[in-house]
Amino acid sequence: MKYLALVYYDEKLMAQKTQQEWDALNQECIACVEGLSESGHFITGSPLMPTSAATTVRVRDKRVTVTDGPFAETKEQLAGFYMLEAKDLNEAIALAGKIPPARYGSIEVRPARELVAEGNQAGGDAG
């Protein structure tokens, strides 16, 4: 089953890291992805640019509106994601616990669902 591991941290705190600390963390993330890939658990993933580069798109009453910045102000910002293959939620949680930025923020683990033309559960609730 596929699980999305969303990486969150406080961008302000991360901006206080030295270049050496930042490089070390990124090297840990690269090694984490290599390990997850070798074990067959990594599907895809990517770090994200900071929220200052975000654009939010909404459609209301058939009108598209665009806002600079993230969807909402929060203490922690979405920093990246890992799409993982795991046998169950327990394994996905164990894998997410290996993601280095978990030390600085949080990793939200959420099962992915298949999108089918008909028969999707209302609201996406798989049951």
From TrEMBL:
SUPFAM superfamilies: Dimeric alpha+beta barrel. InterPro entries: Dimeric_a/b-barrel (IPR011008), YCII (IPR005545). Pfam families: YCII. Residues 1-114 form the YCII-related domain. Belongs to the YciI family. This is YciI family protein.
